[in-house]
Amino acid sequence: MSHEEEDSMLSDAENESAKEKTGGQEQVQSLTQNHIEEGLSLLCKTGNGLAHAFVKLELKERGLNDISAISNFIHIRFLNLSNNHLRDLSPLASLTQLLWLKANGNQIQSFERQPFGQLTFLQWLNVAANLLTDMDELLGPSLEMLNLTGNRIKNIRCLQSSRFTNLVTLELRGNQLDSTEGINLPNLHHLFMAQNFIKHLDGLDKLENLKTLHLRENQIEHLNGLNFNMRCLQYLNVRGNKVEDENAIQNLRLVSKSLKILVFMENPVTNTSEYRIDVVMLLPTLERLDKEPITAHERFKAKKKFQELYEEETVEP
Questions:
Q1: Segment Disordered: which positions (predicted)?
Q2: What percentage of residues in the chain have a pLDDT greater than 90?
Q3: CA–CA separation, 168 vs 48, rounded Å?
Q4: Which of 47, 55, 92, 253 has an alpha carbon within 20 to 30 A of 107's alpha carbon?
Q5: Neighbours of 179 (CB within 10 A)
Q6: Taking the model in full, what pTM does it have?
């Protein structure tokens, strides 16, 4: 992942969570047959292969507060309901072939009495920029990507492998989390938790296959939660936190065998003169630090400093 991609991902999440409903005088309405006919596309064979049906439905920005009329369209696989006024998604329970659902920018307050337990093939779910405060009733046995950016979620204790066996990417930016505790997802590869209130890194030892950890703009003061079990971690972003103790950098050794990209800028500790050299000395596989490639000269200086420290230790009585 390049630093350009990192910035664009953060910008996209910020824009999505902050997006306002268009048109202050927007008419609120129920879903009609005309809406459905206008939004249908992508003709495909049905499950038995003997008939055809449209499987994609586009209903974004229609001012919808009721989608009861959708329940008869059981062949829908791709559905966009973004930027409406929806609180209740229960009519989707009959759409058992649904694979992809975009429902960001609505007014969903809870997963209770929502249909996700019945949507056993759903692989991609975006419910960013809603009014969610927890995830307690959410089930996603086939989910691979879950976007919860820009809600009001305060705890994530339900993120267990028994409920999200196949989850690979989890977006939790811009919520109200104060800890990483509660994520037990050994198959997770990408975790985005920027712009929360996280002070402590807890429970990360269960994320054995994590490759990307994005924690920009939280309130982290130390890195004690990094763990040897995170042996696949390649990208770590803790930009804009409160790490000021030079000893905190030593915890990076716990992920030194895999880490390739580290974004650490805008922490007080980066103001020290030997900051980059100290990091390179700890992380021999690192390729990029704070958006800048590691130079051969920096590697030479890091190696030299390591040798000097080693010699000092060996001569001590």
A1: 1-28
A2: 81
A3: 30
A4: 55
A5: 18
A6: 0.90
